[in-house]
Amino acid sequence: MIRQAVELKVKTTVYSTILKVLLPFLLVFGLLFTIVFFLLMMADQLTGEQKNPVQGGKATNVSKEVLRYQSTVKKYTKEYGISQYTDIILAIMMQESGGRGDDPMQASESHCGTVGCIKKPEKSIQLGTKNFAQQLKKAKGDLKTAIQSYNFGGGFIDYVNQRGGHYTKELAMNFSKRQYQKLAHTGIYHCIRPEAVPVNACYGDVGYVDAVLKYYDFTSPVQGKGKWTTPIEGAVEVTSGFGTRTWEDGSKENHKGLDFGCINRVTPIYAPRKGKVIYSEFHKNKNGAPGYGNLVILQHGKGLYTGYAHLFETNVREGQAIKEGQQIGVCGSTGHSTGPHLHFEVKTSEWGGHLNPQSVLDFRGR
Ligand SMILES: [Zn+2]
Question: Ligand 1: distance of its center to the CA of 259 in Å?
Fold first, then answer.
């Protein structure tokens, strides 16, 4: 009896010791398992959301010094409302500094008048991005004018705006020539490009646009099967694709067009093909709820229509004939919209028969 009791006691002690040691392990293990499980679920949800294409042109052949600033550039392009221009800023940085030094965007001169007053790369990126955002707005979204004025200064934009509002190399040469005539006596300007020497276009870099865009590939990863140019100016970013999309709350929606990121009240919207305006007014849903906002519908022939929604304003009227490449409005966020974008539709009738716009577009940059 005593031996049995002792055995029992020993057994119980062993069991309780095992339990005492194992229980915390089990608890910790269980907790860790739960945490890892939830993290994995969240990661899956995040990648799930990213299945909507968010894509535009890409910076190309830029150094690893430039690439390490990608997230900093992203932060400031978002802050200044030009998210889709992140890779353009990286291309500018590559041309300015290759990503080296304390002032990779070479923003000191425009900031304080002297070279080298900026000591922190982040400050340089902030000021450089802010400056570019301002130039882009002033140039009404004309990307090449904004890039050239990063080198020439804002005076170039006024010069271009007085002469049609679109960048050409010739305008850059003439502006440089004019500025050089005014400033040659200072002795601080000298010709950078061989082609600029014979005509004395020696103010700034007349080849700056080409030099920057050498580091930018306009070809969007979004593939198109057609020949039309995109209806939007600048660095094209598709922010939502055609077809079923899932919202954060899990609800699904059939998205009947393509969404392009653009700058509110700035980015011009163009007709990618000639046509006739058959609708140009503020659209609401039948129940009075916000719909397409300022909407233009073009007819391009029998059974082919395009729609341009959420515009800030339109500058066309019903019945008007439109040439290919003609401006029909300005980017906005009117109607049922969560932020500035162009909602672009291709369809076989005025209000129905939606096709995937990727069947007519080829996603070339303008
Ligand atoms: Zn849309």
Answer: 5
